[in-house]
Amino acid sequence: MSYISEKNRNQVAKLASNCCEYCLLHKDAAFWKHEIDHIISLKHEGSDDISNLALACYFCNRNKGSDIGSIFKGDFYRFYNPRIDVWSEHFRLDETIIQPLTPIGEVTAKILGFNQIDRIIEIQLLIKSGIYPPVFWA
To answer: Is 57 within 8 Å of 16 (Cβ atoms)?
Structure first.
């Protein structure tokens, strides 16, 4: 079990502009509180260092679990890492769909469930409310 200090939690949230670093959902638009994700889980020898922590919405964090990647077209690819990757190099926001652009984007979108129907409907409602995508993204 890991303990992330309040200072580190706040630092991660600041780095993330208070948005899920995977699907871009702002913490104020979420029903459930955003969580701190270990990019590389502790069971895979990840650490509690800021360089291995990301802010994740409830759904992205639950879907990801302790996984570190998945299979795409027969090959293993790691998940998108918000500390070393650029979101727009792996994904494109196409209205309510997060389109993967790379194999890393493909496995991340698939396992984290970016484009499940309930999440698409949520994004549609947030767009209509003017709170998605986040302001920094526009």
So the answer is: no
Are the beta carbons of 22 and 80 closer than 8 angstroms? yes
How many helices and strands (H and E) does the chain possess? 5, 6
Integer Cα distance of 101 and 21 in angstroms: 17
The CA-based angle 43-20-39, given to 5 degrees, is: 20
CA–CA gap between residue 36 and residue 64 (Å, rounded): 12
Q: Which pLDDT tens digit goes with each residue over 80-129? A: 999 999 999 999 999 899 999 999 999 999 999 999 999 999 999 999 99
For residue 110, what are its two tokens?
A: 């698939």
Kindly report the pTM of this predicted structure: 0.93
Question: Which residues lie closer than 8 Å to 93 by C-beta, 6 or more apart?
Answer: 24, 99, 133, 137
pLDDT digits over 50-63, tens only?
999 999 999 999 99
